[in-house]
C-alpha cells in the first residue's frame, strides 16, 4: 500500500526519536506518512510530544535518530527557511512595529519576490481572511481574533506546500475559537494545502481533521479518521481521551475470533468485541459509549442486559444524561434524546438496560498514572 501511494505522500517520519537530555525519549519511534492535501491533527495531552514533533518537521529541532522526508527528500540538514513551510503559533508572533500589510509582505521580501508581485499577493492573502480593510493597522490595534487571522494569512501568503499550526486558537474565547475552526477548515478545503495541526482539544481535532494521530507519552496510539477514532478506539487510552466513555473493569474468560467473554467482579458475564485483550484470566476494561446504552423497553432486544439504579438526571437541552449505578459502579452514564426519555423515570428507580455486542469493546486495563 505504501508503495502504490508513494506520490501522494508529502511528509514521512521514519523511526524518528527525540531526546533533549540524552536520556529520556520525548518522541519514541515516530513513523507517520502525511498525505498531500490532507488536514492531519496531532492530538494528545500536554507533554505528549506534539510540539516537539512539529518543530522537527519545521526544522527548529533536530531528530536524535531517524529521518524526515519532505516530498521524498530527506530534510534533516535543510534549514527551516528552505523547507517551504508556513507556520502559525498560539501567540500570533506578528511584528508589532509593522502594519498588517508589512507583516504579510515580510515572508515574500525575504524570499526575493518583486515589489509588484508582493502587493498583489498581500492583497490576495488579506482577501482570504477578509481583512482587506485593516491592511494599514498595527497588531496592537486589532482584536485577538483579527491578529490570528493575520498570522494565518502570513503563513499562507507565500503559498507554501505545507502549513503547520500549533494550538493556533488556544488564546481565543470559545465562540471565536469555534468560528475560526470552521474558517481554517474551509480555507484548507479551498486552497488544497496540506495542514498539520496540533491541539490538545479533542473536539477541535474531530471537527477539523481528515485524520487524527493520537499522541500519548511520545507515541502515536492510533491514527484514523475522526469517526473511526470515536467508534473504533484501539485501546483504553484512546477510548477515554476521545469522547465520553463508560468503563467497566473485568477479567477475560475466553476469546473466540473477534469476540470474547468478560466476567465482571460480581460474576456477571458480558460478550464483547475482543479489540485489545491478553490471555484468559487477565484484566480487561470494557468500553461502551453512553449513547449506545438502551434503557427500559429499548433494552429487551440487546445482547448484553443488566439492571441499574437511577442516581441522577443531568439536563442538557436536547438530551439528558442519566447517571446510574451498574455492576457495582456509580458512574455509568446513559445519553437519552429528550423525546425518548420516559417522563415517569425517577431517581431511585431500578431499570433494565443493555447494549449490543458490537458496541462494547474489550480493551487493555487502564493503568493509573
Ligand atoms: N527545549 C526543550 N528542552 C527540554 N525539554 C523539552 C523541550 N521542549 C519540550 N520539552 C519536554 O518534552 C516533553 C514534550 O513536550 P512537547 O513536545 O512540548 O509536548 P506537547 O506539545 O504535546 O505538550 C515535555 O515533557 C517537555 O517538558
Ligand atoms: Mg505543545
User: Between the first and last Cα atoms, what is the distance in angstroms?
Assistant: 37 Å
> Pairing-aware structural class of the strands and helices?
alpha+beta
Question: What sort of overall outline do the alpha carbons produce when their principal axes are compared?
Answer: elongated
**How many structural domains does the protein architecture include?**
2
User: What's the CATH H-level superfamily name of the largest domain?
Assistant: P-loop containing nucleotide triphosphate hydrolases
Order of helices and strands: EEEHEEEHHHEHEHEEHHEEEEEEEEEE
Q: What does the average pLDDT come to?
A: 93
For this structure, the CATH topology of the largest domain is Rossmann fold
Strand content: 35-45%
Largest sheet: 6 strands, mixed
Q: What small-molecule ligands were found?
A: adenosine-5'-diphosphate, magnesium ion
| Sequence of strands across the biggest β-sheet | 6-7-8-3-9-10
Helix content: 10-25%
Tally of alpha and pi helices: 8
- Cα radius of gyration in angstroms: 25 Å
What is the second-level CATH architecture of the largest domain? 3-Layer(aba) Sandwich
Number of strands: 20
Amino acid at each position: 500500500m505504501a508503495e502504490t501511494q508513494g506520490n501522494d505522500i508529502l511528509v514521512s517520519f521514519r523511526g524518528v526519536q527525540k531526546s533533549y537530555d540524552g536520556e529520556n525519549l520525548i518522541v519514541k519511534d515516530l513513523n507517520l506518512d502525511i498525505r498531500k492535501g490532507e488536514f492531519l491533527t496531532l492530538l494528545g495531552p500536554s507533554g505528549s510530544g506534539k510540539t516537539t514533533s512539529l518543530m522537527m518537521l519545521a526544522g527548529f529541532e533536530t531528530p536524535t535518530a531517524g529521518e524526515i522526508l519532505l516530498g521524498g527528500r530527506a530534510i534533516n540538514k535543510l534549514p527551516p527557511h528552505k523547507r517551504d513551510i508556513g507556520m502559525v503559533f498560539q501567540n500570533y508572533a506578528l511584528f508589532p512595529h509593522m502594519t498588517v500589510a508589512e507583516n504579510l509582505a515580510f515572508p515574500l521580501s525575504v524570499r526575493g519576490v518583486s515589489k509588484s508581485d508582493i502587493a498583489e499577493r498581500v492583497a490576495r492573502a488579506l482577501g482570504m481572511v477578509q481583512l482587506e480593510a485593516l491592511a494599514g493597522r498595527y497588531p496592537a490595534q486589532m482584536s485577538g481574533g483579527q491578529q490570528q487571522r493575520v498570522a494565518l494569512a502570513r503563513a499562507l501568503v507565500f503559498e507554501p506546500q505545507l502549513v503547520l499550526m500549533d494550538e493556533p486558537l488556544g488564546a481565543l474565547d470559545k465562540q471565536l475559537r469555534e468560528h475560526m475552526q470552521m474558517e481554517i477548515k474551509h480555507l484548507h478545503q479551498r486552497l488544497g494545502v496540506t495542514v498539520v495541526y496540533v491541539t490538545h482539544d479533542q473536539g477541535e481535532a474531530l471537527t477539523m481533521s481528515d485524520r487524527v494521530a493520537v499522541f500519548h507519552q511520545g507515541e502515536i496510539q492510533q491514527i484514523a479518521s475522526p469517526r473511526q477514532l470515536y467508534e473504533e478506539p484501539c485501546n483504553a487510552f484512546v477510548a477515554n481521551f476521545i469522547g465520553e466513555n463508560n468503563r467497566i473493569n473485568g477479567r477475560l474468560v475466553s476469546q473466540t475470533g473477534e469476540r470474547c467473554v468478560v466476567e465482571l467482579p460480581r460474576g456477571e458475564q458480558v460478550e464483547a468485541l475482543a479489540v485489545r485483550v491478553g490471555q484468559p484470566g487477565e484484566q480487561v476494561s470494557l468500553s461502551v459509549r453512553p449513547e449506545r446504552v438502551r434503557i427500559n423497553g429499548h433494552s429487551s432486544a440487546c445482547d448484553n442486559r443488566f439492571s441499574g439504579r437511577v442516581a441522577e438526571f443531568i439536563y442538557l437541552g436536547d438530551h439528558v444524561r442519566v447517571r446510574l449505578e451498574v455492576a457495582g459502579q456509580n458512574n455509568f452514564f446513559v445519553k437519552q434524546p429528550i423525546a425518548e426519555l420516559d417522563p415517569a423515570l425517577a431517581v431511585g428507580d431500578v431499570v433494565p438496560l443493555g447494549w449490543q455486542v458490537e458496541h462494547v469493546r474489550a480493551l487493555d486495563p487502564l493503568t493509573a498514572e
